[in-house]
Amino acid sequence: MTILLANASSAGAGIFVLFLFVAGIGFYFVPTIVAFGRNKSNKIPILVLNFFLGWSLIGWVVSLVWALSQDQQPVIVHQTFQSAGPPLQAPGDSQTS
Q: Which of 30, 47, 65, 69 is the most buried if burial means most Cβ atoms within 10 Å?
């Protein structure tokens, strides 16, 4: 009877350790989950930063702040040019009118 109780408690402890491990991995990748959930344009660099430097508190916080920051909208610039006079001719190009 004692052996069965010992096996049952070690199995429960194993499941609990597995649960803690999965929860820890989930917490570790919170910045990446946030970046993918918000469909950030730079979600892959956030994943790389989180993967390699997330173990340090600074790397994890930086990746979380980056994941929570707003994407910058691209600025579209339309340039129009007006000519100041007739088109220039290349040297040696003689057109007679």
A: 47
Indicate the SS3 state at residue 15. helix
| Separation CA 39–CA 42 (nearest Å) | 9
Contact (CB, 8 A) for 43 and 36 = yes
Contact 75, 62 (CB under 8 A): no
Whether pTM exceeds 0.85:
no
Q: How many CB atoms lie within 10 A of CB 69?
A: 13
pLDDT tens, position by position, 35-81: 999 999 999 999 999 999 999 999 999 999 999 999 988 888 888 87
| Residue that is written with structure tokens 């909208």 in the block | 73
Q: Residue 48: which of 62, 68, 27 has the closest Cα?
A: 62
Task: Please name which of 21, 18, 24, 20 lies closest in space to residue 60, comparing C-alpha atoms.
Answer: 24
